[in-house]
## 1
Amino acid sequence: MLEHFFTCPYCLESISMLLDSSQTKQIYIEDCEVCCNPIELKVIFFNGELSDFQTDRI
């Protein structure tokens, strides 16, 4: 597991999430812990390292 900090695309607050590095490519939805809006997360790991991280409004 990897803790990753990023900015919410809605409220612009800095938040963190634990990412599972055992899966190479992931797309999922999590609510912002500050404003509760849904965020689509696109995560790519390469050789166990985070290589791409994108957030989008839904």
Note: The mean pLDDT is 96.
## 2
Amino acid sequence: MAATKAKLMLDHDALDGLVPETLRPKTRKIVLEDYQLQIDIGFHDFEIGNPQRLLLTVEVWVDETSFSTADAAESAWNYDFLRTEVATLIAGRRFNLQETLVREIYAQVAARPGVTALRVSTRKPDIYPDCAGVGVELASF
């Protein structure tokens, strides 16, 4: 096992400097895609008090120092934060609009260190039988 790890490190070191400048990463992104939530959301009478399925996607671009180069949890951007903060935000609460929910999630993530760009989107997948979903999105670009 140690020999394999040493070989991998040697191979990585041997590649150092060989990646052309045009292929060096320009951005780094963390993604939470289609996080499925049961949430009391909507302003129609039939929606109030009846939690429904909502899909949330959060895309977070981070600066180079926030994107781990080591294979170690302590140096990684903690994407568990995305799930736990959203779960905390919606716990025991209702929203009239997807726009309100997206705005609050956006503000929480945008305030984190290292974030350089952000996109937060939601969609209700069960509203219309002829649509994959209806939703909203906020993005910094």
Note: The chain has a mean pLDDT of 88.
## 3
Amino acid sequence: MMLTNRKMFLAWLGLVVVILMVLIFGWTASGHPFAGWHDGVKSLARNVHYVLAPVAGDAPEQESRLDNGMVKLTVDVSPAHARVRVMNISPFYQPGMELAPGSYDIEVSAPGYKTQRRWVSISGRSATPVFRLSN
């Protein structure tokens, strides 16, 4: 009996799959190469580690800078175009700016909205106070 090219290809492909399964998952006690497939997949999944890719513009030294005792301040504002000012320091506010832990006088304003101003205490590694302006 002669095999056609397609049948020959499928036979070789099946053999390659079985060999790969044996090499990856190993033979089980029952001698069947697919009997341990589920356990093999679970053992491979346990060894998968997720790595977070750096965001564009992030510098590797930022991670070490967090250990300097400073707190990253980002004010969550609505409307998004609102102006944020930290009244008791001289640098202008920038999202993610690093400040020493403590209390800060924050003012948020936007044309057509009521200005909000309050003292915010920050500590830890980051702080995100929320300001929602109303008309």
Note: The mean pLDDT is 75.
